[in-house]
Amino acid sequence: MFCDRILGTTHHGTYKKVIDVLFEKHELLERSIRRIAKDGVELEIDVNEDLQEGDILAETEAYVYAVKIYVPKKKM
User: Fold this and answer.
1) What percent of the chain has pLDDT over 70?
2) Is a pLDDT exceeding 80 seen at residue 53?
3) Long-range contacts of 21-29 (CB under 8 A, 24+ apart)
4) Of 3, 8, 28, 49, whose CB is crowded by the most CB atoms within 10 A?
5) Where are the alpha helices (DSSP H) in 15-68?
6) What does the pLDDT read at residue 54?
7) CATH of the structural domain 2-69, one choice from 3.40.50.1820, 2.60.260.20, 1.10.3980.10, 2.40.50.140
8) Residues forming a β-bridge with 48
9) Which of helix, strand or coil describes residue 27?
């Protein structure tokens, strides 16, 4: 799935199920990146603005794909 702009934000609510697209905080500044959503869908993201948690990247009939920031666990 291709994303070239932010479609909205989940902070204002959505009637569709939200599928997380995981990003580390430093990756939010990248302009062109590929990610696999939690449901296995591959997204090619090419936007000209900084991403923020909750930004909607793509949408289908039943789902929205939104940015979710995660912090990787430290290896011991």
Assistant:
1) 99
2) yes
3) 21/57, 21/65, 21/66, 21/67, 21/68, 22/68, 22/69, 22/70, 23/51, 23/67, 23/68, 23/69, 23/70, 24/69, 24/70, 24/71, 24/72, 25/69, 25/71, 28/52, 28/67, 28/69
4) 3
5) none
6) 94
7) 2.60.260.20
8) none
9) helix
